[in-house]
Design a protein that fits this description.
Order of helices and strands: HHHHHHHHH
Helix content: 55-70%
Shape: flat
Structural class: mainly alpha
Length: about 200
């Protein structure tokens, strides 16, 4: 389900993410991801749990959310209307950990969508996208192993494990329409934040 093209709009993990946040806030430092999965399993008719990687993503996203609490739209707005370098670095670091196979530009696009993307890019939907990226990488690697086994290593083409180009174009377009700024200008903010 996470790999479906409209997964971002479906809110697949909204309930799980809000429940995770509620339990994390209630238990504080003593909270363990295992406790969430036990509670989640008990409430599901199928008695299934979420994958450990998804729960780990929810932990990272919840920590990011708490770190940004009280900030206007998480942007730490400067008088000139740009997010602070601290916010850009935090968002890029988070997305680097959630999307380890993405190119640097794709990571920055994910971070920009997280900060500016609105409802479609809520934290729970970022967790959906991270799971979809992991599944896509696993499928590609599995197919490459099959091709290599059947026809030899020379037969497997070079394949990007990053965000597909059509998704990157769509994300750039969404940001440019919302912010009325070219993607290059948005990405330059991340470059300046990292260099600072």
């Amino acid at each position: 389900a996470c790999m479906h093209h409209s997964a971002r709009e479906r809110g697949l993990l909204d309930l799980a993410f809000s429940e995770y946040g509620r339990l994390q806030d209630m238990h504080g430092a003593s909270f363990e991801d295992r406790l969430f999965n036990e509670a989640w399993k008990a409430r599901r008719p199928t008695h299934s749990t979420l994958p450990k990687a998804v729960v780990a993503d929810m932990r990272a996203l919840h920590e990011f959310e708490r770190a940004m609490e009280g900030q206007e739209d998480w942007d730490l707005i400067h008088p000139e209307g740009k997010p602070s370098e601290e916010t850009l670095r935090a968002a890029e670091d988070l997305c680097t950990s959630l999307f380890p196979s993405h190119s640097l530009e794709a990571v920055r696009l994910e971070a920009a969508l997280l900060l500016y993307g609105g409802a479609k890019h809520r934290l729970a939907n970022i967790a959906v996208r991270a799971e979809a990226a992991r599944e896509r990488v696993a499928m590609i690697q599995g197919l490459c192993r099959i091709v290599t086994f059947l026809w030899g290593a020379h037969s497997c083409p070079d394949v990007s494990l990053s965000m597909p180009e059509e998704e990157m174009q769509q994300g750039r377009r969404e940001l440019e329409e919302k912010l009325k700024v070219a993607w290059g200008t948005i990405e330059a903010g991340f470059v300046a934040a990292i260099d600072a």
